């Protein structure tokens, strides 16, 4: 895995789409505008008693919004990590857009890609097991 | 008699050696020409003609439609198409909700339930629906990127030998929205359109990234089924399959 000079600006620019989207979603939920948190239930949990891998995701997002990192990880580690990566990605995008010298692309080798995919799968399955145990 | 074919004429510079000087090597295969959707092909189609031609092509011959689409042409084309279709679908849904406002009551009566929306409730629902239509370009824009982002996470997990980038996924999902035009058909149009959109998205992801049907299915349905509406998605899928 290495950093190379930016060839494709799209990954950086997409941060300016997804970070504001996440912020708007958080703001709507936080202020209960058009979205009522109690109504955001999980159909899988509701009907079978088994939680899904993203159960607690909304609460994790709300906890992160209040800078409660530990609370976010307790609610849902998968969503907490995804939102943290999104935040880091956005900060990098803002800095790199202002300072062109810092514009980089991450080059991932084939073997490294396989390891990252495996870790992602482990994270999804691990979070699912954790959420099932937490909701029993 | 003059010789027009001056092979040994020193005035003519030799042709540049494009392929490294090994004249015995076979001619390298040429990349197939880019297959631009009519919506983006301004040289041959107007805006309206491009839009009207893109919808049937995407819906009826998706394999050919997605084959050899460019993946570094920019997001404007697919995003604007997806948003436009979503706005039309939203307006159609709003209109049908007005035209068939008694349909829900009739359904409740058929089910033997005594239900009637109260005055204020009706008014609030009407306001929300109207706001939805007015905000549909923004909601559509958000949805195009949201769906593409979620599906691309699935593609990144499933494409073991690399994927062709985010634009390829966005093209697959945004042009799959072509089937949402079926919302113009009242009552069942939006449901049929939703299923058709998912099918087009799977075909699009498979064609754009050059992955198998299985990984494409998991890439599109995996995030939808495993995320928050996992069970609802399964019920919907089971309902569709049993219908």
| Most residues in contact, chain pair and counts | A-B, 28 and 23 residues
- Largest sheet of chain A, order of strands side by side? 1-2
| Total E-strand runs of chain A | 2
Shape of chain B: globular
Q: Uncertain segments of chain B of ≥5 residues (pLDDT<50)?
A: 1-10, 15-22, 230-243
**What composes the largest sheet of chain A?**
2 strands, antiparallel
The rounded distance between the terminal residues' Cα atoms of chain A is 40 Å
What is the multimeric organization of the chains shown? heterodimer
What does this entry look like structurally?
The complex is a heterodimer of chains A (136) and B (243). By secondary structure, chain A is mainly α. Chain A has one domain (8-135). Helices cover 67% and strands 6% of the residues of chain A. Chain A is built from 6 helices and 2 strands; from the N terminus they run E-H-H-H-H-H-E-H. Chain A has helices spanning 10-30, 43-48, 57-65, 69-75, 77-98, 110-135, and strands at 2-5, 104-107. Chain A has a two-stranded antiparallel sheet. The N and C termini of chain A lie far apart (40 Å). The model of chain A has no long low-confidence stretch (mean pLDDT 87). Chain B is an all-alpha fold and 243 residues long. Chain B has a domain at 47-96 and 137-242. Helices cover 61% and strands 0% of the residues of chain B. Chain B contains 10 helices and no strands. Chain B has helices at 47-60, 62-66, 76-99, 103-110, 119-134, 136-158, 166-176, 189-209, 213-226, 230-242. In chain B, helix 3 (76-99) crosses helix 6, helix 6 crosses helix 9 and helix 8 (189-209) packs across helix 9 (213-226). The longest helix of chain B is centred in the middle third of the chain and has 24 residues, at 76-99. The model of chain B is unreliable at 1-10, 15-22 and 230-243 (pLDDT under 50). Classes of the chains: A mainly alpha (136), B mainly alpha (243). Chains A and B meet through helix 1, helix 2 and helix 6 of A and helix 6 and helix 10 of B.
């Amino acid at each position: 895995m290495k950093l190379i000079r930016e060839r494709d600006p799209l990954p950086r620019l997409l941060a300016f789409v997804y970070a504001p989207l996440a912020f708007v979603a958080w703001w709507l939920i936080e202020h209960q505008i058009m979205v009522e948190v109690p109504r955001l239930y999980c159909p899988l949990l509701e009907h079978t008693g088994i939680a899904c891998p993203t159960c607690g995701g909304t609460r994790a997002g709300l906890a992160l919004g209040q800078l409660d990192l530990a609370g976010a990880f307790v609610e849902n580690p998968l969503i907490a990590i995804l939102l943290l990566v999104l935040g880091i990605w956005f900060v990098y995008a803002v800095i790199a857009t202002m300072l062109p010298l810092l514009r980089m692309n991450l080059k991932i080798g084939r073997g490294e890609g396989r390891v990252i995919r495996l870790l992602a799968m482990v994270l999804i399955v691990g979070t699912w097991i954790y959420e099932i145990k937490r909701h029993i | 008699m003059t010789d027009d074919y001056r092979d040994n004429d020193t005035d003519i510079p030799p042709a540049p050696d494009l392929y490294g000087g090994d004249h015995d090597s076979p001619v390298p295969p040429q990349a197939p020409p880019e297959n631009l959707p009519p919506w983006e092909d301004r040289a041959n189609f107007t805006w309206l003609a491009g839009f009207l031609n893109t919808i049937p092509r995407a819906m009826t011959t998706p394999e050919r439609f997605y084959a050899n689409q460019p993946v570094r042409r920019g997001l404007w084309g697919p995003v604007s198409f997806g948003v436009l279709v979503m706005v039309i679908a939203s307006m159609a849904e709003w209109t049908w909700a007005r035209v068939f406002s008694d349909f829900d009551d009739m359904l409740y009566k058929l089910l033997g339930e005594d239900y009637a929306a109260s005055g204020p409730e009706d008014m609030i629902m009407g306001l929300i629906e109207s706001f939805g239509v007015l905000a549909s370009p923004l909601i559509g824009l958000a949805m195009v990127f949201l769906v593409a982002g979620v599906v691309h996470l699935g593609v990144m997990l499933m494409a073991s030998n690399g994927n062709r980038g985010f634009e390829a996924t966005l093209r697959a999902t945004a042009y799959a929205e072509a089937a949402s035009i079926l919302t113009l058909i009242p009552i069942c149009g939006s449901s049929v359109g939703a299923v058709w959109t998912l099918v087009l998205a799977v075909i699009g992801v498979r064609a754009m990234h050059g992955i198998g049907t299985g990984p494409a299915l998991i890439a599109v349905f995996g995030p939808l089924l495993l995320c928050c509406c996992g069970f609802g998605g399964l019920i919907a899928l089971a309902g569709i399959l049993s219908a």
